[in-house]
Amino acid sequence: MEQKSTAKLWSKDFIIVIFLNFSAFLTHLMILSTFPFFVNYLGYTETLAGVCATLFSIVAVVSRAFIGWMLDRGLRRLILFAGIISMAILPMGYLLVYTMIASVLLTVILRMLHAVAFAGSNTAAATIATDTIPKTRFAEGMGMFGMSTALATACAPAIGEALMNLGFPVLYGAAAVIMVVALLLAFVMKAPQIKATEKKFSVKDLVNRDAVPASVTALVFVMAYGAQESYILKFASVNDEVTISGGLYFIFMAAMLLLTRITIGKITDQRGEAVFVYTCCPAMTAALLLLAFIPGNLSFIIAALLSGFAFGCIEPSMQAMAVSLAPPEKRGSANSTFLCSFDIGIGIGAGLAGVLVDQIGYHRMYAVISISCMAALVIYLLVGRRHPSSITWQVHHRNTDF
């Protein structure tokens, strides 16, 4: 018990890897949120932006699987540096399209390359973080690491819009500078040396089996998040009962998300992830049903707070579960398996929501998509809670053995 209270979490390397992840997400979301405007400048409609978004997701998912395998071969620093350097160079490609070569093909290629670069830097950073965090404070550490994603998600769209209003050269120049600073800090960081596995390549190694229960639960849950992320601004703009800015939804959501990330890690380490699955799935369901059936300014804010609590708690606790059984030489594939599930779930949720909006409207769409939250709870009850990767299961058996 003494080790649990004295294990050091906040090391120099842990702080740096948090900043690296924040930088990657910040520049990625700055460019993503302003990309429809960039496409319009080129003279094309949002259809091209949608195609690029779909290709980005597909390429990111495929890339993560192979990146995870390479991370487990001891290539953590190589993948991290390749991702960061690429994310520093690619904004100059967009600037080239903006100033000299207005090419659709080049734009699509840049988005696909950006997907690979982002997948590399993000997956490598998450894996190095899991190497750095003490085992006895693992969920707490992952919660702190996840705050970088939450903070970037909250502020990137506003920063991106402000820089875009100054001109696309300012936006892309700033993105490049941020990643150059991240690169300089990466040189200072000393990632733990991990012994690489000697196994030859196998397709089975691309997916970590112990990470599957948490990953599948998360995949189904974040379908609801994908629907919110993609359509909440439009929902607020067309809803007469909601007279406040749709952007406030993300501000309240991010505030609650950051608050939960500070507190939930210690609880997960001590009691496991089950308490959050049992509370977050109903909370997200309630948020979506408020949007569907009780539209209004107050319910809009309450839904945002419920969503922030739900997503803020379930994401780090599920990631901790996904990686809990992985030895150092398999943490890359465990992290990539989990992060792929997020990419897929958000993509499916956004795509399904778009179809439902066209068929039944925004209100009924949120009512239908809420089913995914309770489906995630059922999946956890059936395949997650008794799996050895469950931290709740581990805590129970540890106490029983004692």
Which range does the strand content fall in?
under 5%
Low-confidence stretches: 1-5
Summarize the biggest pleated sheet: none
Q: Total helix count? A: 14
Give the overall silhouette: globular
How far is it from the N-terminal to the C-terminal residue, by CA?
13 Å
Helical residue percent? over 70%
What structural keywords apply?
single chain, 402 residues, mainly alpha, 14 helices, globular, disordered N terminus
Q: What do you see in this structure?
A:
The chain has helices at residues 2-6, 12-41, 46-71, 76-99, 104-132, 138-165, 168-188, 212-238, 247-271, 274-293, 297-323, 331-369, 371-384, 391-401. It is mostly helical. The longest helix has 39 residues, at 331-369. It starts with a helix and ends with a helix. 50% of the residues are buried. Mean pLDDT is 82; it is low at 1-5.
Chart the SSEs and their pairings.
Blueprint: H1 2-6, H2 12-41, H3 46-71, H4 76-99, H5 104-132, H6 138-165, H7 168-188, H8 212-238, H9 247-271, H10 274-293, H11 297-323, H12 331-369, H13 371-384, H14 391-401
Helix pairs in contact: 2-3, 2-5, 2-6, 2-7, 3-5, 3-12, 4-5, 4-7, 5-12, 6-7, 6-9, 6-11, 8-11, 8-12, 8-13, 9-11, 9-14, 10-11, 10-12, 10-13, 11-12
Short précis:
The protein has 402 residues and is mainly α. The protein has helices at residues 2-6, 12-41, 46-71, 76-99, 104-132, 138-165, 168-188, 212-238, 247-271, 274-293, 297-323, 331-369, 371-384, 391-401.
